[in-house]
Amino acid sequence: MTRIPTTNWAASFHYGFQDCLYPSSVDAVCDIVVRSAKIKAVGSGHSFNAIADGDVALSLAELPINPVIEGDGTRVSVGAHCTYGELALFLHRHHLAVHNLASLPHISIAGAIATATHGSGNRNGNLATAVCGLEIVSGDGRLVKVTRGDADFAGMVVHLGALGIVTRVTLDVQPEFQVAQSVYDGLAWDKLLTNLDDVMALGYSVSVFTKWGQEAGSVWVKRTASNDDFPAAIHGATRATENRHPISGLDAQNATQQLGQYGRWSDRLPHFKMGFTPSNGEEIQSEFHLPRKHGAAAIEALLSIRDKFAHLLQVGELRTVAADDLWLSPQYRRDTLSIHFTWVRDQEAVNAAVEHIEQALSPFSALPHWGKVFTGRHIGAKYEKLAEFARLRDRMDPDRAFSNAWLEEAIFGSSETQGF
Q1: d(CA 390, CA 64)
Q2: What stretches of 36-162 show up as alpha helix (H) in DSSP?
Q3: Are residues 78 and 169 in the same domain?
Q4: Model-level pTM greater than 0.85?
Q5: What's the rounded Cα separation, in Å, for the pair 24 and 1?
Q6: In this predicted model, what pLDDT tens digit does every residue of 42-78 receive, in sequence order?
Q7: 389 occurs within a structural domain
Q8: Containing structural domain, residue 124
């Protein structure tokens, strides 16, 4: 019996798929694309909007991930539908690591890089910046192989599903490293706003979890040097003596180990453990990226309207991500502060709150996360490489086999839905 995806990972978005195809080889993927007027790849379903929606889905779940260490041990090639958790287990056997991970290790590599999903750290690029090679099936069924340095490579990595079906990815890897994390409670807003750069530079990866209430919240600091001690307090926030969950008051059992205890990179960089799916379906997510230099002013702007959105929040998170050269990455040529919102599942109310947030952040050149909830239209117009990306799409998918109404409106600014 064909398994047809009906909802995203959190059960907050309902797909319109009428069928789902499960090829067992790359050749079969190519054949399906040639025979399909419209087709959309589906992965771990971690998007919260219609970016991957359509009539017919294609899943790579029946293909082997077949990870291979390449060359001198500085790269790994793997099936694009592999999750980061699966990849981490393979890399551990070879004492290797990727440079960063997102909050959840359960997401697929292909979906993460297509939407510039990121991880965090002042010096860490988003997960797509680790890509050094791609294999992607274009609209005419060709298997296109590109590597870093090739023409258009920087436009193909963060492709939003508009260019083809990514079947295999090659990533940069490095020697395995140890990470410890500690949580600091009770950070005041004035201390955060005055010392934002210092706070975000406290570790390899830093997150500030907030409910946008009377205090800023808690700081999660992840460090990599075993001789780098965690102080008892930072900027007035005190070090926790018990493990914490990112959402205050929830059981920390499924959160990754804290309390300054060093462990494998893949067991500390995510906020949640690999063997646990951290959702009961009751959530929606939004996120906005803006130049880091505007961070304090943007936070103050949101504080001035928090009565418009804070009551709908489960938790918010502040992170930083380093600049890159990927055409449709929100970090394209700018170091960013990322402002994340995990909402209760009330789509209408969330949409209204997001509109207020978008207005408040508009003076700061904020860009939404491509895979999460936003209300703005023709976001692609805010990217200086949009014209080049449109020409690339014309070559990769001239008949628009991979398009849908959401992509046309959000990226290219067309409200014409006929044929999509």
Answers
A1: 32
A2: 84-93, 109-114, 153-156
A3: yes
A4: yes
A5: 16
A6: 988 888 999 999 999 999 999 999 999 998 899 999 9
A7: no
A8: 68-175
